[in-house]
Design goal:
Blueprint (H helix, E strand, L loop, with lengths): L2 H18 L1 H39 L3 E6 L3 E2 L2 E2 L6 H4 L5 H8 L4 E16 L2 E10 L3 H4 L4 E4 L4 H5 L4 E4 L1 H8 L8 E4 L2 E9 L15 E5 H8 L6 E6 L4 H13 L7 E5 H23 L1 H20 L1 H9 L4 H34 L9 H27 L3 H6 L2
Length: 405
Amino acid sequence: MKTGSKLWALVKLAFQQLRRNKTRAFLTMLGIIIGVSSVILLLAIGSGLKIYIRQQFTNLGSNMLYVMPGQMIRKGHYQPRNELTALSGARFTWQDVQQISHLPAVKAIAPVVFQTTPVSFANRESQASLIGTTAEMFSVRNLKLQTGRFFSHQEEIGGARVVILGSQVAKDLFGPRSPLGERVVVNGSKYRVLGVLRPQGGLQMMGSGLDSRVYLPYKDVFRMTSDNKFPLLVVQAAAGEIDLAKREITLLLGHRYHPEDFSVTDQAEILATINSILGVLTMALAGIAAISLLVGGIGIMNIMFVSVSERVREIGLRKAVGATATDIQNQFLLEAVVLSLSGGVLGVVFGFLGAVLLDRLFPARVSWWSVLLAFFISTLIGIIFGVIPARRAARLSPIEALRYE
């Protein structure tokens, strides 16, 4: 018999065995199905997050710089100087903001101070991230209004208690009605609503997201925190001058702070760092999910041992009519591979469907290489965990096998 026809006969025999014991075959494949679908789903989430973050940074523009405490980013990797780098690094003053704004390569600068606190109206409440900043933030970040207006420079320096609500905060507090002119309570004080931002989309995690932000003059947040320094400066460089702006800011701040106490980074560096962290995290989670593949492989090996024990007489008959030990070994090895590969196919299907459903709530993109990886791992598991039972079957003596009851 030709090699091709012999292989095809063994494949048909393997599928006949699966059909003969459908329930047992499915339960055996379950570990492979769960493992493959979990790996594909986690890799899809990792890929989707990277695409989403890249899109968000693209929307911000290509000429943005961020001045932050500590040496947080170096060549696309997260390398903190110590455990308290961000806390022990420099926090910037209003004098720093003014000096940076006068640099030739800087177009605009917006300092930022954060505070997380509930914002309420009547009997409704929304957990919001307060962004204390200047009027320049709206042009620097290219924020768009759904309704109303931004606060002005005069309102900012005059201490006016005014806020711009993110779309989610406005929805939580006012529902479909307009919040313009209404007064919301922030940290026990009333603030007049000037405007509502357009929905920016993105992830809502633990109530926090781009649409759960509230913008107000930085002096008001200073009053809440009793701290008159900024943990972040958002800088818009002049067109084509981002490298020059970075050098100028670094040189300027280097006269006031230790070089390790601050970072001046552009979006490409931040994106590379985030992608690096996401990549490590995704692979770690995928590795944990892959443990179920090991469990599935052990299940296949056990069921193949049972199959060998149940088919001892069949093995004896096949050897008696001329089948070689290699033929018997290939038969059982191929059955293990078919069992594992079938589980891999179902795992890919369930993983893909799960990614499609999850994409409605959370970014998830199935990549072709993850599918190929799943098929490769499935085949490898079938070979590794099928070879021992196959060798046991091949070593059976035909005489002893025919006598087996």
